[in-house]
Fold these 2 entries.
Entry 1:
Amino acid sequence: MGEEVSNINSILAVITAKKNKEKVSGGVPIFLVDDEDELEQVSMLLARLTLGMVHDLGNGVKIIIKH
Amino acid sequence: MFKYGDLLIVSILVGSLARAFMLRIDYRQFPSFPHSYAIHLTLGMIASTLGALFVPVLLEEEYIAVTFLTIGAQQFREVRNLERESLLKIEETELVPRGSAYVEGIAKLFEARNYLALLTALVTSLIYYYLNWVWAIAGGAIVGYALHFMMKGPQVADIATVEIVPITFKGKNIGIDDVIMMNVGEKEAWERWHKEGIGIKVIPKDEDARATLANLGQRQAIVHDLSILMGVKLDTGMQQFTPLARLNLDSGTLNIIIIPQEPDKEFIKRAIEKIPVLESSERKPLKSKMGRKAAD
């Protein structure tokens, strides 16, 4: 009891365009967006809200990790 | 005046002044609240009193009283714990933490300086007993200064050369030369790194320096001090602007990326050169035969 659960260095959210739907799945919140602008906007907001950081996997998928 | 009064007053005074002198020099590493000054000046005075009492105690042949020195040592160890605890507590409030190695170094230093004050007072009282007060003050001052001088450790400039280099960008990955240090997925953050980011190479001079710079505590100390001295564009929840220090595994060069408030390259270089090498991080593989042979 009382042991703090830490989400440091684990993936908090995954953001990608709808066309990349095949590339993502799993137990993490996944946000599907329409275009590049929305991708940028959503990932930035999620990073601010979770106090985390946006990483770009280079294949159109962005993830949020708190370090 | 009471017995040994002059001797005690002169020694306590010189010892306390020696402690005050060391406090003054220390401004950068010390969270300089007036209250901390009061604490350490008082403790320094207590230490000098212990040192000053040593000679009168021996003259009175009260040898058993020498045990008070051990009580003093016990007290000063407490000082180290006190400093460590308070620094670790405020660590959470630092944007760029000092790191536990740096905190330990500062705590150790504050313990040691009480012993230096004690030794200074002891030497002063000895000289006072054998000569007179003029020699005692002069001798005490010299001893205090010499002790302080001997405690000075090396700085980064002694073990490495510092170069300011541009950051390399490979897509969303940023770093220095071939070393990728951070993946920035946010456009705005990437643009800021591109515009204002500065890369620094700390190149070790030999194998000793290489092992020292590889120490995580030493790296954190460099990043912390640099952020204090040059400022850093960083806020809580803005992890994408955190300054980082990573090794080039092949050459042992320490690469640092930072977005400073003051992008003055010359002074960034000088600031890093002035950063102390931590006692607990210093490694000397070249002092061993194996290390020397392997380095050939």
Note: The radius of gyration of chain A is 13 Å.
Entry 2:
Amino acid sequence: MVALDLAQLSVREANTRLRTLGEAGEDVEILNPDARHHIGVGLTAPVRVSVRGSAGYFCAGLTDQAHFNVSHNVGWGVGDNMYSGSVVVGGNAGAIPGVAIRGAEIVIHGNMGSRAGQVMKAGTLCCVGNANFMAGYMMYGGRIIILGDSGERLGEDMSAGEIFVAGKVENLGSDAMLTDTDQVELDQLHEFLDRYDIKAPVGFSKVVNAGTKLRYGTPEPPMRSIPFQSFSGTSPYWNPKVQEDIAIKSQSGRYRIRGYGGARPLPHLSDIGFRKNLTNAGSERDVVEQVRMATEIGGINGARPLNLSMPVMIAPMSYGAISRSTKQAIAIASAMSGIAENTGEGGMSDAQRDAAGQLIFQCLGGRLGWNIHDMRRADALEIYISQGAKPGLGGQLMAKKVTPELAKIRGIPAGIDLRSPSRHPDILGADDLVIKIEELREATGYEVPVSVKLGAGRIRDDIKIAAKDGFDFVELDGMQGSTGAGSAEVIDNVGIPTLPAIIEAVEALEEIGARDKVQLVLMGGLRDGVDAVKALCLGADAVAFGTSVIIAGGCIACMQCHVGQCVTGIATQDPEHEKRYKPENESQNIHRFLESVRWQIAAITDALGYDDVRQLGRDDLVALTPEAAYITGLPYEPVPVDTATSSTGTAP
Amino acid sequence: MCGIAGIMYRGVDQVFDTGDALIRMLDGCQHRGPDSTGFALYAPELSGRLKLRFFLDRLNEGGGHGAIDAIRRRLGELGAIVEEEAQVGDNYRVTVGFSGDVQKLSYEMERAAKVISIGTSLEIVKDVGSAHEVDDRYDVHEFRGTHGLGHVRLATESEVKPEAAHPFWATGFADVAIVHNGQITNYWKMRRRLQQREFEFTTDNDSELIAVYLADKLAQGIALKEALASSIEDLDGTFSFLVSTQDEIGYAKDRLAAKPMIMYQDENLVAIASEEVSLNRLFPGQALNTREPAPGTYATWSHSI
């Protein structure tokens, strides 16, 4: 056994040593922990770690196989996302013990704080003392054993799993119910308690999901096929969109859910143009070679940056919302074009990892598919706070798409109408967020950039927090962004459009003198290289494309992404539908589109008189509408000399 | 978004190194708030006298000395007799003899200068920067007293400036201070109610509201414990806050318990903080028997218990 003394070493140094010792199979003793955070984070070796004293937040977080013993207390989130292995805590645990575990065993000999086992997927969380309120909140599986009393709202919105309580159950949460414990379960409980030398109580109350909220009462009725153009038309009264909305609600009796982006006119990048006459843009044949476009993202704090061949990446889209073949095609195309792909919510598959040259791994509140092993093989991590299409809401995946295979990777029951949590269990403010970022960095040895995805809302405040919390880059998503499924009311009516979003973000960073401390990646309805250049002029360091990539790969914009029977095989998990999708062809189509973007960016940058995209600036733009002039502060020039859209010609 | 800390030593008429203890506790949770740091420090009461602290950078009449002259003049006009004075960092610190209405004095002085705190026991020290940076400017470590509060702040919705740092003094009420982690969502509703009763607010910060809300109750003769109980009913939002008066310290925590708080108690002291790591800074190398206050609860302590 090797001793690591935290009176001498920082937690970061100790964790580095711990990982090396773990690989060598050496057990470790941690001295003078003094309630410091992140002890043992990222350890993936089958060794024993004894913490002599109290540990702080996320002790044993993001680990696999290791066995921890903490003699005293632990802070929030003990065993966060643990895969296998165990943690035994001699004293009390703070809030969210066993958050998002996927198979570990966690035993707390004292009391435990609120929301124990939030979004856990598998494994056992056992508390010998009392549990505070909302134990089992949004749990997707596994077992919670409480030998003392449980607090209020036990099992609130749990989807699956079991909670056994030996003491008093104060009251039950939404969609939870009491049921009987059978002998097999009782035997299993006794086996577990014996193993940890805990005296078994006489009996248990058992709490499970009551099954009233797992599926919508009425499935979402199919929409009629309305071309997007008329769907997004501007006629205010009884247009096809309004009629369809009423017709669908007359069947479902609730809010609507649909896929695709907002369908109402909003100020956008098309409302601004270039100041200069761009008639000759693209006339030089080798313009792509002449303009420097290579961009590094995420390296400003010392992590290994993404190396993009142009300031472009793929927007986050989940395996779940779209099919495995589509994710594969996008990954292939992104690698061919030398840009980064993004996993979205649904976890990382081997196929996607292998195909993508550079891959960003997204961490959401439900921690669906989130795990230490995939974090390690990611090129960047991304904490999702919200998205432009539905800021403040979690993802939705209708039952048709929640297949057994998909459920397995996410760690959830198959066949439910999945409504992902809108909030993270462990990020309730900017202060908690700092500790969370540090945990992700500890787990990946400070090598992988950690970014944040922000749906445009309170941008001025949010972007400042992102800067202060030290993210390596920010993905800012405007209201024109799309989604695989969301409330139609929210998609069309909630959010801040992409154009004011970038303006406000840049202003806010300048206000606190932090413009060079944050790299901004703008997304949300960007369509092509022209939009990309405008975004770069306004201050973005890079842009991301989602919908346009999907369209390049065959999407027909029918807005039925939520249904799960996508005729093109994109937004589906049904093998019958997916087989129509040919990733080997569509990856080529997406790649060609991305190369057209590259050519547009080069041609416009060159025509504006520059040889590097970093020379683009606000002075290159004018506003084409009074509204855009008001939003951007750009000069209002309603009759531009020429607009890029009409002057860039056709791609080679 | 912040980290909070509070400490009270047991023992009547004794003083302890409260400044040093709070510096250590705040250094332990500085990651929760790198923008600014502040201290509410209590010493035994000066009877018949008041300690006042002012920010000097907000005064624009002829630099520091002009500003100090203006404060002196106004204090004189209001019947306060200057006994001791000093310029400390960016603060003007003055002890006055005063026997009039403290609330009236406070509001008048607020109009003349930027008041940080007024009290017979209390002095607030707060500025941008870390606990150690603020200590370097104001020598907080030299402070010996009975109890105190501390705060580290990450500004989310307002600017980074000394005035927006915590602790907040209950404007108009001597010796009441607060540190708060969270967000009061019925701020404007509660503030309008208090303003209708002629209370004045010097910031738009929700923490000032809690301080004035509690001080108002205390001024009505309601015990601090009762005031904290009603605050949990009346205030909406997520909050963990600590309050201190001349002889008491207390906490309240909302029912959702989204903001952390942990406490340690022994025969010598009571210490409360956002995270156990701060408590452990008082006892390096020792595992502490701490307790997390339950959601929706409150408690108070005084020197004698």
Note: Chain A has 19 helices and 27 strands.
